[in-house]
Amino acid sequence: MDRSIPVRFREEYKGELKRIFDQRINLFCYIAISAFFVEVVLASFWFRRLLSAKDLPGIAGGTILAVGILFSGKLAKRTLFLHKVRGFLFSVFIVSIAILAAAAHPDVIASLGITLILIGMFASVLLLPWNVLETAALGVYTLVCFIGVYEMSDAYVNYEIFGINITLLITATLICMVVKKSEEIMRQKDFVLKEEIEEKNRIMVDELELANKIHSGLMPKSVKTDLVDIAVDYKPMLYMGGDYAKFHFADKDRLVFMIADITGHGVSAALLVNRLHTEIEEILRMKMSPGDMLKRLESFIKADFGKMSIFLSAFGGMLDFKSRKLAYSNFGHPPQILFRKENNRIIYMESQTFLMGIGMDESNVYQMTLDFEKGDKIFLFTDGILEAKDPSGEMFGSKRLEEFVRQNGVLEVMDFNEKLMSALHEFQKGVQCDDIFLLSIQIK
Fold it and tell me: For tag attachment on the chain, is the N or C end more exposed, with fewer CB atoms within 10 Å?
């Protein structure tokens, strides 16, 4: 094995060579077998004068040899050496075709000279991944075969032409050696480059999977309490994404929750989410109202990400079970849904201001309040649901979501989430275009 192949890749490189030998030998054995049968048919029905009894042993022997080489592939699977033995037999077979043609009809060698032998040599040498020494050995074998054909031919008696052809054959062998050396160098470089890329990809995938586990650990889990059932479903477009949600019991009578969506996808958005997570946890511990929470978060976005053109939509809310009031604030987030159990009514909690991070210098605190009753549900989601696309490019949209909520809003939130995620998967035909976050709260 060439030392230019790193030790850690040498077994894989041997496997690559075995694959090339196996595929090419099998292909050309099939071609050769087919060619023999075509030759027999043509010679028997159209060119009978070219086929005589002395041709039959060569035809039969060549066919048997091709079939034997073809089926020996199962025995050669284990080692590169056995594949090269098959390759050598294949080369013998190819060169032998030229020998048999010349030996059976001496006038062929006189009229075609070295052409048949050169064709056989080029086919046997250039079609398989031989190294330089192996190419030289095949060239010597071909040279010996040519001399043998000369000795068997009564018609070929011109020593000057014979000498020229010997020179041509040696020159062709040297050219083949140079070509195979260059080919071997390029093949090894390409193989090492491919393996290094795949190795880096494997490392990257492992790191992404680890990062995904860490990132997923930041997301809340579905819970059931005496006051609420909360169902959470998160499906990033890639390994991880820019959607985020959090809920927290400020005390026994108040549930605070938040959902946010950072512009962008993938690792960069996930890194920003990781940074936001710490800040949001700190904000939630301050027991602020939703309007003050999002105003504090907006100040953080401007201070830390103001020069990065990072934008964030966010919705924050608080359920006060004692007063039966829902307070909420919406910064550029899609209208979230309050579903009234009593009359299946949908109330949209619309956006009250711009996205966070666009640079608006305002001191206003945005907050509104709604009443709620037992059995009501709150459906929080990111725009990945609304912007889900079918194969024709049509979006799922707010109308489809509203219709889905009207038909399924009475379901338990766990069942509701499962059914909606399934409907989105079917709508998109499995091709997801954005991160999807769905957080549903059922008030008991």
Answer: C
403 and 325, same structural domain? yes
Residue range 207-262, pLDDT digits in tens: 777 777 777 788 999 999 999 999 999 998 877 778 999 999 999 999 999 999 98
Do 157 and 48 have their domain in common?
yes
Q: Within a domain: residue 211?
A: no
Let me know if residue 210 belongs to a domain: no
| Amino acid (1-letter code) at residue 364 | N
- Which two tokens mark 66? 């091709």
H/E stretch holding 175: helix 159-217
Within 261-344, where are the H helices? 266-285, 290-305
Residue 34 CB-density burial (10 A; 0-12 exposed, 13-18 middle, 19+ buried): exposed
CA 217 to CA 414: how far, in whole Å? 20
| Residues 377 and 319 reside in one and the same domain | yes
pTM above 0.85, yes or no: no
In 3D, which of 173, 144, 158, 49 has the Cα closest to residue 109?
Answer: 158
Range of the domain at 15: 7-200
H/E stretch holding 439: strand 436-443
187 domain-assigned: yes
